[in-house]
């Protein structure tokens, strides 16, 4: 499955109920977007189901910014930025 950065942005924005414009490369998930650890886990499960990918706990722990998350999802799906 090949997806685009816009698809990931749209899906994450919908999940977090945020304006997609807030999902910038350097937006910190916790401080800027209000994502706590439980929400991060739930969001990763949602992304895993949506894109048929696996995101390990270790990979999720490495994600600090929206850009990190987008790159991780795109790398797992063979998607394009």
Molecular structure report:
The chain has 81 residues and is mainly alpha-helical. The protein is 54% helix and 0% strand. The chain has helices at 5-16, 37-51, 57-61, 66-77. The longest helix is centred in the middle third of the chain and has 15 residues, at 37-51. It starts with a helix and ends with a helix. The mean pLDDT is 94.
Explain the layout of strands and helices:
Elements: H1 5-16, H2 37-51, H3 57-61, H4 66-77
Task: Output the keywords.
54% helix; 81 residues
> Which segments are poorly predicted (pLDDT under 50) over 5 or more consecutive residues?
none
Q: What sequence of helices (H) and strands (E) makes up the elements?
A: HHHH
Rg of Cα set: 11 Å
Tell me what portion of residues adopts beta-strand conformation: under 5%
Helix- and strand-based class?
Answer: mainly alpha
Helical percent range?
40-55%
> Major sheet, described briefly?
none
Average of pLDDT: 94
The total count of helices amounts to 4
**Amino-to-carboxy terminus distance:** 14 Å
In total, the number of strands is: 0
Which geometry do the CA atoms define?
globular
Could you give a quick summary of the protein structure above?
54% of the residues lie in helices and 0% in strands. The chain has helices at residues 5-16, 37-51, 57-61, 66-77.
């Amino acid at each position: 499955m090949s997806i685009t950065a816009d698809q990931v942005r749209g899906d994450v924005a919908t999940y977090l109920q945020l304006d997609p414009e807030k999902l910038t490369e350097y937006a910190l998930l916790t401080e800027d977007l209000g994502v706590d650890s439980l929400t991060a886990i739930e969001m990763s499960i949602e992304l895993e189901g949506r894109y048929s990918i696996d995101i390990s706990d270790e990979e999720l722990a490495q994600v600090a910014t929206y850009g990190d998350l987008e790159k991780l999802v795109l790398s797992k799906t063979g998607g394009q930025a």
